[in-house]
Amino acid sequence: MATEKMEFQTEVRDMLNLMIHSLYSNKEIFLRELVSNAADALDKRRFLSLSDASLLPVGTQLKIDISVNKEGKRLVIEDNGIGMNKDDLINCLGTIARSGTKNFIKNLKEGDKGSVDLIGQFGVGFYSVFMVAKKVEVLTLKAGETQGYLWSSDGTGEFEISEAPRTDVGTKITLYLKDGEEDEDWTSEWKVKDIVQKYSGFVSYGIYFHPEPTKNDKGELETKEPQRLNDKTALWRQSEKEITPEQYKEFYNVIGHEADEPAAWSHSHAEGSQEFWSLVYIPSKAPFNIWHNDALHGLKLYVKKVFIMDDCKELLPPWLRFVRGVVDSEDLPLNVSREILQSNKIITNIRKHVIKKVLDTLQNMADKLKEGFYMNWEHLDELKKLLRFESTKTEGDALVSLDEYVKRMPEGQKEIYYLIGDKNAVKSNPMLEAFKAKGYEVLLMSDGIDEFMMNSLLEFGDKKFHDIARGDVDFEKTEDEKKAEEENKGIFKGLCENLQKLLDEDIKEVRVSSRLKDSPCCLVTSEDAMSAQMERMMKAMGQKNLPKSKRILEINPTHPICEMLKKKAEANEDLGDWPKALYGQALLAEGSPLPNPAEYVAAITKLLTASVK
Ligand code: ADP
User: Fold this and answer.
1) Which residues contact 93 (CB under 8 A, 6 or more apart)?
2) In whole numbers, what is the pLDDT of the chain averaged over residues?
3) Which of 416, 453, 490, 563 has the fewest CB neighbours in a 10 Å radius?
4) Which residues sit opposite 510 in a β-bridge?
């Protein structure tokens, strides 16, 4: 067969053009792409040999070899994987078949965004070699076939394919590196090693670096032993049963860059619609740089054992950023970027799972602490010190630590107040009114897990945590306040009883509130009942047959509506639509859904209509 010239698909041309002129600074990813293509090819050969043993002769070591030629400015990466025949070469290295790349092209066409960003966002597999190479040759023989082929291109409009003698199954890719990239010498031994170790350290097949032969004293060329670059096992992919605690601890030192022992860890493998592995560690000490976001290692994200990024913020909420470890997804594309991660369902799912694992682990630690086993109290305090919360006194993205909170507690405040609720509603919950008026700061929480966490925290130093949506308000009251409260109980007794009768189905008790200032009413939870937030969560998790937990309705004795209703009750008048309207308002204010929106709207409409008559 003579050499055949073929044109790249238009989209490929567009992209190659971009690669060739790329200013993208993270060019090293080309090696990650080549190594992972090689590892995929090795997987494929191994897999196919299960049904056709002749594809993999006994004793064949599946591996990846990398060699360099400094003077000739060449970088060679070779695998003995599945290889490609002529059709494969045309289809795989001439057209665009992959979804990641399709998106890339789509953005490229629509885009007025810089091309530099786009490369980082999508990564572009094999074609990324043209960021560093002026010419690329692919010499390959497909397993089970006898004819080898040579594909070559300079990355402009065309590529060439010719038959070529090759006896070894697999693919050898030679990059003829661009001139004039002095600061980026891709033939440098340490650089190649560095990149391979960074991205491909956990790849299952051996990756070997073949140092260039050097001349000895006699002027003879001396070859050197190849060096294996990846010697780490992806511990997280092994079964928990096979791993000793020592191995877990050792792995923590590798992955967490820590010298000491982890306090605890949780290892899991999820299968089903998505497959992923997670191995998360709770450090035993707060890292000194915990508040410097950039310096953190956090969770590392891998896709099919290939390193994607450090400190993957999308996998954990900020308050859990002290956690170390690894997540490895089988389903994400290699080309995944931070932007894609932010709205990715797979990530959301993994995140939920990981948070749960971390909290279970913390819970477990806390339980152990309580029982006085293993750990000491000091440790839990360390963890508590790491917590940061929004509060009634924080603004924007600012968060408050428990230390700070306690420091700025006004005189008279004895406990640490918190409120858990719906993200959008918690800040304006009427229950906060009296606390704000008193100058007491209330920690605001809306993460689904906060409820569990707070259940195990109990206290910080000598200060107890107090859920302000629960039970009675017990902050210091002046003699006058106490007196007024007692009087109000008597004055509003009739109204309370009346409301209780009308709302009995939903409400356990109606009582006079001392926590409201501007709102007419709010709902609180009795000490022993399930909180509204927990109830919403359980429902969201599909728990249908929850026992109905009735809440307490508190009314504001100083509010004109309550005043008016009190008079009506005293005069034995019908309270009309007011009870339903008030109950609905209380639910809405805390972000709970209305059990019967139509009924609420009807009640409100009637009251509004009456006000304009
Ligand atoms: P991706 O790996 O995301 O599919 P690439 O552009 O990196 O995209 O590669 C395109 C295709 O070329 C691969 O899917 C594979 O079929 C083929 N290919 C690339 N490198 C090799 C290799 N070393 N051995 C065998 N096939 C390869």
Assistant:
1) 84, 126, 138, 151, 153, 159
2) 84
3) 490
4) 553
Give 71's contacts (C-beta < 8 A, 6+ positions apart). Answer: none
pLDDT at 380: 65
* Domains of the chain: residue spans and CATH: 4-228 (3.30.565.10), 235-367 (3.30.230.80), 380-611 (1.20.120.790)
Contacts of 549 (CB under 8 A, 6+ apart): 525, 529, 530, 535
Residues in the chain: 613
State the DSSP string of 304-335: TTEEEESS-GGGS-GGGTT-EEEEEESSS-TT
Instruction: Look at residues 37, 375, 330 and name the one whose alpha carbon lies nearest to residue 207.
Output: 37
- In this structure, which residue's CA is closest to atom 4 in ligand 1? 98
Distance CA 557, CA 551 (A): 19
- Amino acid symbol at 468: I
d(CA 195, CA 205): 16
Give the span between the Cα atoms of 33 and 36, in whole angstroms: 5
Ligand 1 close to Cβ of residue 441 (< 6 A): no
Q: How many Å is the maximal CA-CA distance in the chain?
A: 117
> Strands 463-467 and 459-460, how do they pair?
antiparallel
CB-based burial label for 283 (10 Å; 0-12, 13-18, 19+): buried
Residue 375 phi/psi, 5-degree rounding, is: -90, 170
pLDDT in tens, 512-548: 988 888 899 999 887 767 666 666 666 665 556 666 6
CA of 101 to the centre of ligand 1 (A): 12
What is 410-449 written as a DSSP string?
A: PTT--SEEEEE--TTTGGG-GGGHHHHHHT--EEEE-STT
Say if CB 552 and CB 523 are below 8 A apart: yes
Cα separation of 4 and 149, whole Å? 11
Give the HSE-up count for residue 362: Cα atoms under 13 Å, Cβ half-sphere: 26
Per-residue pLDDT for 296 more than 60? Answer: no
CA angle 103, 105, 111 (to 5 degrees): 95
Higher-confidence position of 244 and 181: 244
Query: Are 467 and 419 in contact, with CB atoms under 8 Å apart?
Result: yes
Residue 38: CB within 6 Å of ligand 1? yes
- Enter the tokens of residue 502: 């009308």
- Confidence check: pLDDT of 143 > 80: yes
Return d(Cα 261, Cα 242) in angstroms, integer: 20
Query: Ligand 1, from 11, 32, 33, 92: best to mutate by most atoms within 8 Å of Cβ?
Result: 92
Nearest-atom index, ligand 1, CA of 37 = 20
Residue 421, Cα to own-chain centre: how many angstroms? 22
Is residue 460 helix, strand or coil? strand
Considering only CA atoms, which residue is closest to atom 20 of ligand 1? Answer: 37
Give, in degrees to the nearest 5, the angle at Cα 108 between 102 and 112. Answer: 150
Q: pLDDT of 114-138, one tens digit each?
A: 555 555 555 568 888 998 999 999 9
- The C-alpha atoms of residue 613 and residue 607 are separated, in whole angstroms, by 10
169 close to ligand 1 (CB < 6 Angstrom): no
Whole-angstrom Cα distance, residue 56 to residue 315?
39
Return the DSSP state at 225: -
Pair 449, 355: CB distance under 8 Å: yes
Alpha-carbon distance of 192 to 190, in angstroms, equals 6
